[in-house]
Amino acid sequence: MTEPLLAIRDLSVDYRIERGRLQALRHVNIDVPKGSIVGVVGESGCGKSTLISSIIRLLPHNASISNGQINFEGANLLDLSENEMRSIRGRRISVVYQDPMTSLNPVLSIEQQMRHIQYRDTTRRSAKLEKSLAMLESVGIADSRKRITQFPHEYSGGMLQRVSIAMALQAKPSLLIADEPTTALDATLEVQIIHLLKDIQAQFGCTILFISHHLGVIAELCDYVVVMYAGEVVEKGTVRDVFHRPAHPYTTKLLQCDPAGIQIKTRILPVIPGEIPDLVNLSGGCIFRSRCHLAESACETEIPPRREVAPGHAANCHRLPI
Amino acid sequence: MTALLRLKNVRVQFPVKSTMRSLFDRTSPASFDAVCDASFSLQAGQTLALVGESGAGKSTLALAITGLQRIAEGSIQFEGQEVSRMQTSELRDYRRAIGYMWQNAIGSLSPRMTVRSLITEPAKIHNVAELDQREMSSKLLDLVGLAEEFGDRYPHQLSGGQARRVGVARALALSPRLVVADEPTAGLDVSVQGEILNLLNQLQDELQISMLVITHNLNVVRHTSDKIAIMYLGRIVEQGDTAEIFARPRHPYTLALLSASPSPDPDMQVDRIELQGEIPSPINRPRGCEFHTRCPFAKDTCAQIPPPFEAVAENHALSCHFPR
């Protein structure tokens, strides 16, 4: 197998907070093969946002990367200088954020914002405009010559998300990180954006790291899926393997909880009782044990190792056969 | 059996121009309809779900029901009494009878009040002195499944699910007969969504309250509601019993909403009805059937004549020229 485009190795990130050291990510390993769409799924507090900020090295000041590597196109991003990193952000790796209403500047027109992000190019202003127009058209914005002069508030949510995708793709990055890009949108628009991302992937051949808490969207869009819980990767594999034969109890329960999967009317819906553990005082053992119905004594004391259940499909659970 | 809540041809209008401008400029309309011709009834002990995308008028309609939004036409009757004609004192009693769960659970709680004072505040406002505050708050916390110590916490110390539970406690504080839940699961994790829906179901069974649930997610209401009304651009386009709507959806918009939520099965072949474009502006409503601009099955008639809202079966009605 060829070298993956992005390989996160044993990454651990801590936050210094008043109460001590909050271990937001612990020994995370993720491979993103070139040309694929990899989904990261997990609920609030699982470390999805910390993961993105680590990749583009925009962590808050109280965070520190205590361990690991982020290998991207042959270099470890954590070793690069701030200047080298600047040449990667937006050009080799770009991000589409969750809420386009807040990620775009409300007082600048779309044209100005799309021109500003081409600040590295020495081409003429008119060439930059043409490039912006072509990008808008490729994400399905009709009448782009008129719409580009408008301001964010004149766009609807779905259209604005298309604009942010166009801006992210403008420099033809090799990795596109999409941070819950459909969460702020209505269901019928969500489907449109998923299809757009699929088309774009085919058209530009870029690799997408897709972060979401929505299982259905991941199943529909991605090739591979990484399931995270409380700062750890608990399961990963191809979408088909993980969704059809989940190996980790958390994945199994998460799939059962999704109301979209329950076809027969019921008054009592399945839930995962309990809450995410406190990441400040970790005591060792399996991170999911307090909410796991299968927990046994080994889960209390030993961190479960990664076990392969099928080629390319692995989960961290003591109950899996070695 | 009389209905607890009965709406007939309710219309809510919002102005688009100042009064002064509308005096001089008579060419364009002075207001637009956020809700048009909404009619439904809700029986005691039942749950009705209003489903639609943003801009469909769901929340506006809910505000009109609570009397917080004036209606331009039509009638809203609660236990036979006309809401729009209530005097101030009657309105106060009426609002005691309805509990409202706001969409933004954390934002609707004052950040400087403890959970205990938040959930007993409704009693203070309505001068209900029957219970000791502490007793009342522990009763309510227990009811929504929060431990006693949560009474001393502030909103920022709550998780999304816990804040939602406090919202439920506040709504139930004065033993209402109707609870309006605006997007009760929005922004919650999948594993917690079920908890809130289960809590609402359980409380309804125990306390026999009626509920009006507002949501954009059809999957959420499949398990909680008895009836569904689907709204598009301020109008109810399909309405009926939940089981009937899920078994035989007829309106293209309902079909699109049903197929829009991707299933967590990668091999599922979806026969998806994908809508083109976005919701048109209610200021310039499309002619004919208002859905025809996005409908994949639209024919010439649809652009000309608005379809009537007709019953196709007992407890199932819709407005479409060519139902599926």
Molecular structure report:
The complex is a heterodimer of chains A (322) and B (324). With 322 residues, chain A is of the alpha/beta class. Chain A has a domain at 6-92 and 173-257: Rossmann fold (3-Layer(aba) Sandwich), CATH 3.40.50.300. Chain A is built from 12 helices and 12 strands. Chain B is built from 11 helices and 12 strands. Chain B has an 8-stranded mixed sheet with strand order 6-7-8-3-9-10-12-11, with helices on both faces. Chain B has a 4-stranded antiparallel sheet with strand order 2-1-4-5. In chain B, strand 4 (73-78) and strand 5 form a beta hairpin. In chain B, helix 4 (115-125) crosses helix 5 (133-143), helix 4 (115-125) runs parallel beside helix 6 (160-172) and helix 6 (160-172) runs parallel beside helix 7. The relative contact order of chain B is 0.14. Chain A binds chain B through residues 43-44, 156-159, 186-192, 194-195, 213-220, 239-240, 243-244, 253-255, 257-262, 265-272, 275, and chain B through 53-54, 159-160, 189-195, 197-198, 201, 205, 216-217, 219-220, 222-223, 242-243, 256-257, 260-268, 272, 274-275, 278-279.
List keywords for this structure.
heterodimer, A: Rossmann fold, four-stranded antiparallel sheet, 12 helices, B: 324 residues, alpha/beta, Rossmann fold, 31% helix
Radius of gyration of chain B: 21 Å
Number of strands of chain B: 12
Helix content of chain B: 25-40%
CATH architecture assignment of one domain in chain A: 3-Layer(aba) Sandwich
- The topology string of helices and strands of chain B comes to EHEEHEEHEHHHEHEHEEHHHEE
- Please report the distance between the alpha carbons of the first and last residues of chain A: 24 Å
Number of helices in the DSSP assignment of chain B: 11
Query: How far do the termini of chain B sit from each other?
Result: 33 Å
* CATH superfamily grouping of one domain in chain A: P-loop containing nucleotide triphosphate hydrolases
Please give the domain count of chain B: 1
Q: Major sheet of chain B, described briefly?
A: 8 strands, mixed
Question: What summary fits the major beta sheet of chain A?
Answer: 8 strands, mixed
Q: If helices are DSSP runs of H or I spanning 4 or more residues, what is the number of helices of chain A?
A: 12
Helix/sheet category of chain A: alpha/beta
Give the DSSP E fraction of chain A (strand runs of 2 or more residues).
15-25%
